[in-house]
Specification:
Order of helices and strands: HEEEHHHEHHHEHHHHH
Radius of gyration: 24 Å
Membrane topology: Multi-pass membrane protein
Structural class: mainly alpha
Number of strands: 5
Protein name: Olfactory receptor
Strand content: 5-15%
Organism: Equus przewalskii
Distance between the termini: 77 Å
Mean pLDDT: 80
Strand order of the largest sheet: 4-3-5
Keywords: Cell membrane, G-protein coupled receptor, Membrane, Olfaction, Receptor, Sensory transduction, Transducer, Transmembrane, Transmembrane helix
Family: Belongs to the G-protein coupled receptor 1 family.
Number of helices: 12
Length: 338
């Protein structure tokens, strides 16, 4: 019996070694991980299936809502204004943002194939960072547009021309691409000696840094600085814009004018609060206060929930968008019946 027990232990040791070698590559007397795996959400299959169903429904709602808003703005000449141009860009960013993360997340929840290659993880991190930072900058551009419309209406047409709007959108996408490339290259230039299990739903920056070998304090400082520059700076611009807007609204003589000015800003303010609130808590809080459970909940919120809520917020609180969406749905219904 003792001999059988020793053989069993020996076999388990071999299996563990094989598993380790499957996610690592021996290079220069060090283990360099080439394969990662996401941790299982729960050992209870029903819980994983329930979360899979909820995330899938929210993902489909987000894709449908954002695609409809982008289509409504594209096909309706009345909505070819700076505010709706930026809103269409925001919808496209949200589609890319969710598609870079959710499909792999869904696969990891219910499938046995929870692994992801080092190159796949780097690609996911790049696109996630690219779309997230671009959205930060675009939200600041949208706040500036509202500031110009309310505080400087006589110069609005010239200062927010089609060319200026295109430049602001290109700068937003360009900053996101640059930061995404820089951060991804910086993090994946590190050595990963193991373990190779990511305690998260996707390849986000903090959980990947936690797997790196040696001292990563410089990398963590770089991530924090980038977060300050690319999250806090646009947020401060948004706060400054809305501070000026509020001051201008308070001195308006007409109550109807005040109500209309505030109604055009309320949707954007709500989206900013949802996006920046969850993002700031994730990336700007001290490392000591991070916990895998909290980080996962926040990740679900800013990757799935906010992307689903944005189309609802803009369509419910904006009569022009609502009318354009109703027109598209009505035309689709007529074509179906024909």
């Amino acid at each position: 019996m003792t001999r059988d027990y020793d053989i069993k232990l020996s076999q388990e040791g071999v299996n563990m070694k094989v598993m380790k070698l499957n996610c690592s590559l021996w290079q220069d007397n060090s283990m360099s991980v080439k394969q990662f795996a996401f941790t299982k959400f729960s050992e209870v299959t029903e819980q994983c299936f329930l979360l899979f169903t909820l995330i899938l429904l929210m993902f489909l709602a987000s894709l449908t809502g954002n695609a409809l808003i982008a289509l409504a703005i594209w096909t309706n000449p009345v909505l070819h204004t700076p505010m709706y141009f930026f809103l269409a860009n925001l919808s496209l960013l949200e589609i890319g943002y969710t598609c870079s993360v959710i499909p792999k997340m869904l696969q990891s929840l219910v499938g046995e194939a929870r692994g992801i290659s080092r190159e796949g993880c780097a690609t996911q991190m790049f696109f996630f960072t690219f779309f997230a930072i671009s959205e930060c900058c675009l939200l600041a551009a949208m706040a500036y547009d509202r500031y110009m419309a309310i505080c400087s209406p006589l110069h609005y047409a010239t200062r927010m021309s089609r060319g200026v709007c295109a430049q602001l959108a290109m700068i937003s996408w360009g900053v996101g691409c640059t930061v995404g490339l820089g951060q991804t290259n910086y993090i994946f230039s590190l050595d990963f000696c193991g373990p190779c299990e990511i305690d998260h739903f996707f390849c986000d920056l903090p959980p990947i840094l936690a797997l790196a070998c040696g001292d990563t304090s410089h990398n963590e400082a770089a991530v924090f600085v980038v977060a300050i520059l690319c999250i806090s700076s646009p947020f401060l611009l948004i706060i400054a814009s809305y501070g000026r807007i509020l001051a201008a609204v308070l001195i308006m003589p007409s109550p109807e004018g005040r109500r209309k000015a505030l109604s055009t800003c309320s949707s954007h303010l709500l989206v900013v609060t949802l996006f920046y609130g969850s993002g700031s808590v994730t990336y700007l809080r001290p490392k000591a206060s991070h916990s895998p459970g909290t980080d996962k909940l926040l990740a679900l919120f800013y990757t799935v929930v906010t992307s689903m809520l944005n189309p609802i917020i803009y369509s419910l609180r904006n009569k022009e968008v609502k009318a354009a969406l109703q027109r598209i749905l009505w035309e689709k219904k007529v074509l179906t019946h024909e």
